[in-house]
Amino acid sequence: MEVVVRAVVLALFLFVVTRVVGRATLSELTAFQLILYVVMGDLIQQAVTQQDYSVTGGVLAISVFALLTIAAGHVTRRWSRARPLVHGVPYVLIRNGELVAETMRMERVSMDDLLIATRQQGIARFRDIDLAVLETNGRISFFTGQGASDGAAPPPDQLG
Question: For residue 134, what are the β-bridge partners?
Fold first, then answer.
């Protein structure tokens, strides 16, 4: 039973850590960040199993993480108010060609990251962007006068 409690506590801790790190960071990991997450995984395993190297302990710990993931999915489907807490909400980074600096600071999106994303979408100038949205998965969707890019749906004012 101790493994279950430890797994729940550490799963919640990992959830908080990944939310604090920021979604822009999670969408494209640097080599250092990847190493950090791998090492963190090993440290979590040691903390959860507490030197229990048995197959049963490992299966139990993985099962708890899997059940927590399933439970989070069920909660977000059943109660819409839980969705922003579990999945996050999209944030506007550029509106009418102007940067939303406060959102960029809050979500820790650097100007370099934003410039890379615009170049990847073939956008030359910020003034060409009607709306840039940091999605919950860490990707940035751009809406220009020519329509949506990145496979995103059109802005709400252009729907039906």
Answer: 91, 140
Question: For the whole model, what pTM was predicted?
Answer: 0.58
Residue 75: phi and psi, rounded to 5, are -60, -45
Token pair 């839980």 in the structure block, residue: 82
Do the beta carbons of residue 114 and residue 138 sit within 8 Å? no
**CATH fold of 91-152:** CRO Repressor (3.30.240)
What is the gyration radius of the CA atoms in the chain, in angstroms?
Answer: 20
Q: How many separate helices (H) and strands (E) can be counted in the chain?
A: 7, 5
Eight-state DSSP code of residue 1: -
Is 46 buried (19+), middle (13-18) or exposed (0-12) by CB count in 10 A?
Answer: exposed
Does the pLDDT value for residue 29 go beyond 50?
Answer: yes
Domain ranges across the chain: 2-87, 91-152
Confidence band (pLDDT; 50, 70, 90) for 157? low
Long-range CB pairs of 141-147 (<8 Å, 24+ gap) are: 142/94, 142/117, 142/118
